[in-house]
Amino acid sequence: QVQLVESGGGLVQPGGSLRLSCAASGFSFWRYAMSWYRQAPEKERELVARIFADGNFRYYLDFVKGRFTISRDNAMNTVYLQMNNLKPEDTAVYYCNSEVTGRNYWGKGTQVIVSS
Prior knowledge:
By secondary structure, the chain is mainly β. The chain has strands at residues 3-7, 10-12, 18-25, 34-39, 46-51, 58-60, 68-73, 78-83, 92-100, 103-106, 110-114.
């Protein structure tokens, strides 16, 4: 079955960096767009970044443009989110997502806390 497993979250000071990873299995990873969402306390889940199957098109939430980079390794079935110059407002649980054959799949999430 489809599985998405995130890793790489943690506590970081403002201005710091983290790289999130999402290991995918159970589907033809190379055929599907992959996304990162986040959900902060008492806020709705929002789309942070998306990368199309061939990696040639990327979307970013305006607030993270220029600071976050989404990438993928189709040989490793893994999608990454490099997060630089982190701000306290980036604190959230980050989720990996893919829509496979019309159904949305989610990982369990990884916590990112940006605090001094």
